[in-house]
Amino acid sequence: MVKRLFITLIILSSAIANGQNNTSSPYSYFGVGLPSFNGSAENRSMEGLSISADSIHYNFQNPAALGKLQLTTYTVGLTQQMTTLKNDTDESEKAKSTSFDYLAIAIPTGKFSFALGIRPRNSVGYRFQESTSSTFARFNGKGGLNNLFLALGYPLYKGLNVGVEGGFHFGKIKSENSFYQDNVQYGTKEMNVASISGFQFRVGLQYEREITEKLRLES
Questions:
Q1: By C-alpha distance, which of 59, 52, 76 is closest to 113?
Q2: Spatial distance between the Cα atoms of 149 and 50, rounded to a whole number of angstroms
Q3: What SS3 state is found at 3?
Q4: If both were cysteines, with which of 77, 94, 207, 209 could 101 make a disulfide (CB 3.0 to 4.6 Å apart)?
Q5: Sign of CA dihedral 28, 31, 34, 40
Q6: SS3 state of residue 38
Q7: What is the mean pLDDT of residues 163-176?
Q8: pLDDT digit string, tens, across residues 145-159
């Protein structure tokens, strides 16, 4: 059963990663794009707070939080973003994008808990142009970097959890730049495709202690 879930998740993750466009910001023109929020909807609703852990939610930002998990958890996140772009002459345009945030499953096994999922790490998505009476320039870009990860969490001691996470980063960034001067005869068109891959490893600790009936320390 678990093996089938893993295979299904990997196939679905590949389809999502190859078919998405997570941003419409011209600032994604630089480098490998804009960094994505590395957290769940619960983290985002608390302004990015990542130290909290409980028995029914998966905390993406700290693998040690899996040590408290008691129920199998499926989680998926989407974001819709509205962007207003304005130039130096106060001309403005609006852009809308719906992005995939994460897809994961977290399973407790009794002694430890583990999670498998995918999330975007950087996103590229822009299209803008500039023209004068004699020149025309256009810039297009799309793609990004995704992270397929496996995390483990273990309750080391009462109130103290430890966790590890390994991830494989992969993705493609495609860009197309066009420049014409006077007429098409003197135009230039440049197309680039960058394939990116690599591994990441991190560890985490999570500690909590009840100080009073109404006060709890978490770190």
A1: 59
A2: 18
A3: helix
A4: 77
A5: positive
A6: coil
A7: 91
A8: 889 899 999 998 888
